From TrEMBL:
Residues 159-380 form the Histidine kinase domain. PROSITE patterns: HIS_KIN (PS50109). GO terms for molecular function: ATP binding; phosphorelay sensor kinase activity. Keywords: ATP-binding, Kinase, Nucleotide-binding, Phosphoprotein, Transferase, Two-component regulatory system. It is an enzyme of class 2 (transferase). Pfam families: HATPase_c. It catalyses: ATP + protein L-histidine = ADP + protein N-phospho-L-histidine. Its EC number is 2.7.13.3. It comes from the Bacteria. This is histidine kinase. SMART domains: HATPase_c (SM00387).
Length: 380
């Protein structure tokens, strides 16, 4: 039986030159062989193929450099030296530049040749296009994160503005009372002290609100252990006054008050805030569509429970629910059902934070009364 690689000669075979096999092999390696070069132990380039020269933008059959180190960035030179000292056939990543000083991202694999004189063969794969696409994607993700933070900041500024209205009104009343007391000769040491205490109380409340706002936006560089319920309660305390003016009540129940996870606390608080705001918007939207519901109380129900090594935070509402068509697109970037009032990045970023940074999951389903978002996090 003939093998798959065996060839037959045709009647025109005599027209083939004697060196055809060598020429065909050379053409094969030109087209399909990886970029490679032969190095000595100091990194001097002894031989290289055309694909190697192509990677570094060399002209055909020319080589204007004589040592591989001259092509690498300073941080990649120690890696190359180690590979030449201890060649193990494993792949490493290097940063380099071609003759035009354009940045290159390479994978390299070095093996020692079984000849005397310490010679090595180095195979290179140019991954610059892939790396640039990855860098572009990272920049886009950073932009999405920044946009989401700005949206969250706008929401928090609205909360602060709402919470400051009452103490500012109180301060205005106190100032007017002091003026009236002075006009009527009733301003004495006791009344002044009473007014000062009242003013300090309002200022302390306003200062606490600003501190909550500031802590919310402090970035975390490394993950830490924290109590899940504490983070949820902090967000509720910030946004609850605004929800009450919208006739919306938040109900929090917890089966495990001490449940802890390792991750980024402020990022999780941003997720919880976003889900609560979405629930508020769903209730508001239902009131706009359903006249009978306009005077009904909005309910946002938050449940914290744990099973095995997983803690779940479910946030449900009595809003409009989510259609199947919308649910398929809900976590995609820039998808929004709020027209000009939405950025379309809140839920996408929330899912990214929970799944990529917290190693959990974020899902959504409809309930009998509205929609329920569920965050699942690993327990410590």
């Amino acid at each position: 039986m003939k093998s798959d690689t065996e060839t037959n000669d045709s009647r025109h075979a005599d027209n083939m030159p004697e060196n055809f096999a060598a020429a065909a092999a050379a053409e094969y390696f030109r087209l399909f062989s990886p970029a490679f070069c032969v190095l000595d132990e100091k990194g001097n380039i002894l031989r290289s193929n055309s694909n190697f020269r192509k990677v570094f933008a060399q002209k055909k059959n020319s080589l204007t450099f004589d040592n591989i180190m001259n092509l690498l960035t300073p941080k990649s030179i120690p890696t190359m030296k180690k590979l030449l000292k201890e060649p193990d056939g494993k792949t490493a990543k290097l940063k380099a530049h071609n003759v035009h000083e354009e940045k290159l991202y390479l994978k390299v694999c070095i093996s020692e040749l079984s000849v005397s004189g310490k010679l090595f063969i180095a195979f290179f794969e140019n991954i610059s296009k892939i790396k640039r696409l990855q860098n572009k994607q990272k920049k886009q993700e950073k932009l999405l994160i920044q946009q989401s933070k700005m949206a969250a900041m706008g929401e928090m500024l609205g909360v602060i503005a709402h919470q400051w209205k009452q103490p500012l009104n109180t301060l205005a009343i106190i100032a007017q009372t002091i003026g009236d007391d002075f006009d009527h000769g009733e301003l004495n040491a006791d009344s002044v002290e009473e007014h000062i205490d009242a003013i300090n109380s309002q200022i302390l409340f306003m200062s606490t609100t600003v501190d909550d706002f500031r802590r919310f936006f402090i970035p975390q560089k490394t993950p830490h252990k924290f109590r899940i319920k504490d983070s949820v309660e902090e967000i509720i305390s910030i946004i609850d006054p605004q929800l009450k003016t919208c006739n919306i009540t938040v109900c929090l129940t917890s089966e495990n008050d001490s449940a802890e996870t390792i991750g980024y606390r402020n990022e999780l608080k941003q997720v919880i805030l976003n889900l609560i705001v979405n629930a508020k918007d769903a209730i508001t939207h239902r009131r706009e569509k359903d006249e009978k519901f306009r005077t009904e109380k909005g309910i946002i129900e938050i449940k914290i429970s744990s099973m095995a090594n997983i803690c779940t935070i479910s946030i449900g509402d009595n809003g409009t629910g989510i259609s199947s068509g919308v649910m398929k697109k809900l976590f995609k970037p820039y998808f929004t059902t709020k027209n000009d009032n939405g950025t379309g990045i809140g839920l996408y970023l929330s899912k990214t934070i929970v799944e990529d940074k917290m190693h959990g999951t974020l899902s959504v389903e409809n309930s009998a009364t509205g929609a329920v978002f569920t965050v699942s996090l690993p327990l410590t």
